[in-house]
Amino acid sequence: MNESEKRRKELLESTRALYRDSHVPPAIHPRYGNIYADLYGEEEPAGSFGLRMILCCMLFAAFVVMDYQDMRIADVSSQMVTQAIEADSELTEVWKDL
């Protein structure tokens, strides 16, 4: 093997090492991130589930208090909230109202 062949071989190996993607985890659905994080040693960023859960609990508690004490907040009663949830609506109607 002459000098130019050795040089070509070194360049080929360095290029393969540079562009090799074996160290990059495969593209996966976020739902399976926790499973693959253990395999690849990467941590998933913290989500906002806890904050959303606290907000939902506070809104539900406010609704229960409104219903129990027959309160109106911003001219809205608990019966109006219940009717709005139970009402059938189509996306086109909601879009037109916006």
Determine the strand fraction and express it as a percent band.
under 5%
Strand and helix order = HHHEEHH
* Biggest sheet strand line-up: 1-2
Helix proportion range = 55-70%
- Alpha-carbon distance between the two ends: 75 Å
Largest sheet entry? 2 strands, antiparallel
The secondary structure category is mainly alpha
Helical segment count: 5
General shape: elongated
Using only C-alpha atoms, the radius of gyration works out to: 29 Å
Give the tally of β-strands: 2
Mean pLDDT: 80
Uncertain runs are: none
Can you walk me through this structure?
Helices cover 63% and strands 4% of the residues. It has 5 helices and 2 strands; from the N terminus they run H-H-H-E-E-H-H. Strand 1 and strand 2 form a beta hairpin.
Structural features:
mainly alpha; two-stranded antiparallel sheet; 98 residues; 63% helix
TL;DR?
The chain has helices at residues 3-19, 33-40, 49-69, 78-86, 91-97, and strands at 72-73, 76-77.
Outline the fold blueprint:
Elements: H1 3-19, H2 33-40, H3 49-69, E1 72-73, E2 76-77, H4 78-86, H5 91-97
Antiparallel strand pairs: 1-2
